[in-house]
Hints:
Elements lengths: L1 H10 L7 E4 L3 H7 L2 H7 L2 E4 L33 H10 L7 E3 L4 E7 L12 E4 L11 E3 H9 L3 E4 L7 E4 L4 E5 L2 H15 L11
Parallel strand pairs: 1-2, 2-3
Antiparallel strand pairs: 4-5, 4-6, 4-9, 7-8, 8-9
Amino acid sequence: MTEFSADAAQMVRPRLMLTAAVAAGEKNIQAGYDIAELSKVLDFVSLMSYDLHGSWEDFLGHNAPLYPRADETGEQRLLNVEWAAKRWVDGGCPPAKLNIGLATYGRSFTMSSFDWEHDMGDPAEGAGKAGRFTAEDGYLSYYEICEMLRNGATRLWHDEHQGVPYLYTTDKQWVGYDDEQSIDIKVKWSAVIMARVAPSCETID
Length: 205
């Protein structure tokens, strides 16, 4: 920041901005950041509030849930957008400096069995199939997800206030992703958090 300020004064131009993309998980936050000190220097902080679950786990989980599920315990209850944002704000990051990361892709799994309820927390046996264009196991672009929906995948909405959609197919594929509906909810929620008011499900349409 000192160098950027000196450069701006010497060149008579606006100062370069200093920003950082930061982690959302508690272990990474504790190990890597002095939030209050960083926030004094950074112009803004981009919270990587996604990749909270994926095929590295042995159960189905959404990439970027807004809230925790009722049946989650321990560290799992901290893997959601709401908790991560509040953790950074409570740690000393001014809400006006905090950018909430939004995922425009999905994390996919292969379900262990089609006999389960296809719900979050159910067993998974590995990554979902690679997409035709992105060609990466466990990861799908939004347009590939839209193609799955057009081809008969079943879309469900998590009714426990996680505020996100997911889909499954008859060949045991499961994808957690964000769409227009969930992005709209997260944007409205972020306006509440920026105002430093605790969000609640009742206040978000």
